[in-house]
Amino acid sequence: MGKDGSPKHYNQFDSKRNRLTWIFGVSGLCILSYIMGSWKNAPYTSNNQSDTYSKVGCDVASTSQSSSSETLSSPSTLDFSSHHHIEINNPSAMQDFPPCDMKFSEYTPCQDQVRGRRFDRNMLKYRERHCPTKDELIYCLIPAPPKYKTPFKWPQSRDYAWYDNIPHKELSIEKAIQNWIQVEGDKFRFPGGGTMFPRGADAYIDDINELIPLKSGNIRTAIDTGCGVASWGAYLLKRDIIAMSFAPRDTHEAQVQFALERGVPAMIGIMGSQRIPYPARAFDMAHCSRCLIPWGKLDGMYLIEVDRVLKPGGYWILSGPPIRWKTYWRGWERTEEDLKQEQDEIEEVAKSICWKKVIEKGDLAIWQKPLNHKECIQSRRVIKTPHICQSDNHDMAWYTDMEKCITPLPEVSSSDQVAGGALEKWPSRAFATPPRISSGSIPTITPEIFQKDNDLWRDRVAHYKHVLPLQQGKYRNVMDMNAHLGGFAAALLKYPVWVMNVVSPNSDHDTLGAIYERGFIGTYHDWCEAFSTYPRTYDLIHAGGVFNIYQDRCNITLILLEMDRILRPEGSAIFREPVELLLKIKSITEAMKWNSKIIDHESGPFNPEKILVADKTYWTGQATPDKN
């Protein structure tokens, strides 16, 4: 109280000044603490860097010298090794994997010729997939031949391959007259010849183009049964047609391996007792050039299988026996009666499955599948066999037996309507919404989701360009182990690559048919088993979410060893998983002699999914000593 008894009054200005001083003082201390904390936790950048930082790998510049992938301009390498651990289905210890014996250099686990001899020869079942039992699995690295070289870049690889990479002269001798392959010094040369196209595949394809329109953009995907070294597929590529070529691992040693070494799509496969691993309505065109498949036998089952995978309005092209048998019967060392009977059987089967013969001219005969089944269904009143299949598993083609019935096409309202929906012409087809999606045939996948997926993959590939030399020709054969809608393949269209799109047969949403509708190729495959290819046949493998899917189903070490088998020396792999799973993958790849680094997600560091970029190092097996 004042002397006069009244209350004491404080100066309001002084009060506000004191409060502001207190606020600024506390703020200043917070800022100073933050700066000091940041300085304390920042890597020391002098030349006398501490051992602690060296051990955790913060010096990116020094570690990049040991990894070819890290010499690229790229996002910073991330290190999580001190903070994250996970235990998953992986019984093998993380010691370095030893090299396998050189006898495994061309090992194809599920098409092993020795194992195949145990199985029935009827319908060539012994040449179908027969994977190793648990006791037959090998935990070693498949060696490259001693003088292995980096393959020629595309398009030179179409015509040349190094002899040391596939040291087999058998085809150059056996098929010398037919010009499949020739040995020229340390190289193979592929003249483009074939059994039924001695003038070369280019001229042969020109002959086909005179009969059906190959350049209109309506024909984009093709399948070549019994492909040889895939010269037909190789020369279709410059016409913007991509062919899935397949052939068995048989007496024609390494024919599929030669195809892939050339940079041409191919798989080991056979027309046996099981469906070929592609969805219904996949291909615009199918081809057989003296492929020796008994089309008219077994109630036409093999031609019925071709019908299953052909799109409405698709073409089937046949050259070789029995076509033009009146001219060639002596050279084929068969009787006229036998050849005439074979052609009659083929004609009868084609008619019974509602195909129309377009033309037979020279060495070529061409049939066309109808646009829909309105008339075909009506014809079953007269033509009783084969009947229309009643099952609804038309796309199922993983260890699924072939059927002797016609795969029904989606219903239409008029006879000129394309069953399942008309496709855009190539290249618009690549980004147009596939009919399977626009019609709602794939649950939960809408046109809006499809377009967002395209945008997503455009951003992802733009991100990958910082760590992978996509434009430099290092990569040609690319595999997407979990292709989903084919967005990765679409985003790579402007680069000189092709993509094998793999879809799991156990997936909740079968998207492989939509991938084919986009004009890309692919196959069904379960990654708990080995892929149907030779070692060293892919340059770049993309594994997005693969291990998150399979870690509870099978041993991820075996999946990674399979990736090592099919990836060529100095090839690359991309993994996308949560960071803890990536660390486990990284430790296994290091045990496989790969160089790898973890980088941030394309959306930034706050996304829990990270990216592992890995390069397989160059090493080869040792030459086997000459016992003589």
Q: Could you write a compact summary of the structure shown?
A:
This protein is an alpha/beta fold and 628 residues long. The chain has helices at residues 12-41, 51-56, 60-63, 113-116, 170-174, 201-209, 231-236, 255-261, 301-309, 325-328, 336-352, 374-379, 435-438, 447-464, 487-491, 512-517, 546-550, 556-566, 579-591, and strands spanning 160-162, 182-184, 187-189, 221-225, 242-247, 266-268, 283-289, 310-319, 356-361, 364-368, 477-480, 498-503, 521-524, 538-544, 567-578, 594-599, 609-616.
Structural notes for this entry:
By secondary structure, the chain is α/β, with parallel strands linked by helices. Among the domains are: about 200-380, Rossmann fold; about 425-615, Vaccinia Virus protein VP39 (Rossmann fold). Helices cover about 25% and strands about 15% of the residues. It is built from 19 helices and 17 strands. It has helices at about 10-40, 50-55, 60-65, 115, 170-175, 200-210, 230-235, 255-260, 300-310, 325-330, 335-350, 375-380, 435-440, 445-465, 485-490, 510-515, 545-550, 555-565, 580-590, and strands spanning about 160, 180-185, 185-190, 220-225, 240-245, 265-270, 285-290, 310-320, 355-360, 365-370, 475-480, 500-505, 520-525, 540-545, 565-580, 595-600, 610-615. The chain has a 7-stranded mixed beta sheet with strand order 6-5-4-7-8-10-9, with helices on both faces. A 7-stranded mixed beta sheet has the order 13-12-11-14-15-17-16. Helix 7 links the parallel strand 4 and strand 5 (about 240-245). The chain starts with 11 loop residues before the first helix and ends in a 12-residue tail after the last strand. It is a single-pass type II membrane protein. GO terms for molecular function: methyltransferase activity. It is found in: Endoplasmic reticulum membrane; Membrane. It holds the Pfam family Methyltransf_29. Its main location: endoplasmic reticulum.
